[in-house]
Amino acid sequence: MVVLQLRFLLVPFLTSVMGAAQYMMQDAALMNYIDRRFLSLEKRLEKCNQDILDYVEEFRDFSKMVLSRLAGLNNYKAEVKSEVENLLTRIERAQRDIDYFGSVTDSNTCIEVHEDLVKQQLFEEAEEKKKLKLMLNASCDHMLAGIKSLKIVKKTGDKHGCWMKDPGKKHTKIYLLNGSVNNVILEFANIMTFMESNHTLKARRVTLPFAWEGTGHIIYQGFLFYHRYGSLNEIIKFNIQKRNITDQMLLPGAGRIPAYQLSPSTKIDLAIDEQGLWAIHAEPETGGNIVITKINHITMAVEHTWDTSCNSKDAEAAFMACNTLYVVYNFPSGGTSRIQCVYDVLDAVNTYEIPVLHFPKRQGSHSTIHYNPKEKQLFAWGDGSQIIYKLHTKQKV
């Protein structure tokens, strides 16, 4: 009887236990299913985040590529505009020549037209000279008569380089640009700091966004003007204090051959005189003769160009002083540098009566010679030495 009662009690107990166990198994399976779904969702979210990052990176790369191509298009646009303007100028010259030769072959009536044309051309040339005299301060009336002495300030750096003061600023800072390809300027507080033996520790380093080519750079009014490395004829205007590029231009006709045969790394030599910024270069069309171009340093626009009679063969450097180009020649093996070709853009100097001017007390070559109109001195770089030449001047004839 007792056993029977126990059976009746155990049956519902076991039934309830088995039912609870079944429910627990179902809950565990449900939780396992939910966990798997959450893991799947997390993986999908991670993949979504990674895809978004990839898309953002691709968009950045695409934006950089578009900006780079837009910058290239702007350069091409400026180059095409410059070439078109140059072509228009040449067409105008050719048209005048055609009119002239046509008048020569005509009858007596045409001869009168030819005479009128000559008068018109003479009138236009006179007007052009008046404009040039207004543009270039005609009161600049001195010319180089001799190179009095030299001072070797220091010997530092490579064989090729450039050093200078800013003639357009009221400070005594010295700038050193070492090498024919580089992108670091060394700025010194004054010439005494520069002359100290361990000069690099006291120099302010200015890194350019693009390297320079050659040694024909110049600093003027707080800006560095230089030929950009790797470009044919791009001139960069760089703000030294703010450390950014403020403007650039393409110099028509330049960059195809060296400006000077003995300084082949310099395709464009920039210069400063009393009138501002100039560019000195050579062109194949002129037979290797040197071409000088007046540049507005504010707008970076070409103001006028002159084809000179000075040849780049055996030339090592040149500089501008008071509207006049002075070309320095040497021997390929090195020797005494000499000025034996002079070109005045206003024809105020009788270049045929100027004697050959020799650089004193030094055998060697120069990679750079720049005129400082403020101090009336030449800052030169010769075989790794930084040199100052004092000048003797006289009134133009």
TrEMBL record:
Residues 1-21 form the signal peptide. Its main location: secreted. Disulfide bonds join 140-322. The keyword Metal-binding does not apply. It is found in: Secreted. Keywords: Disulfide bond, Secreted, Signal. This is Olfactomedin-like protein 1. The gene is Olfml1.
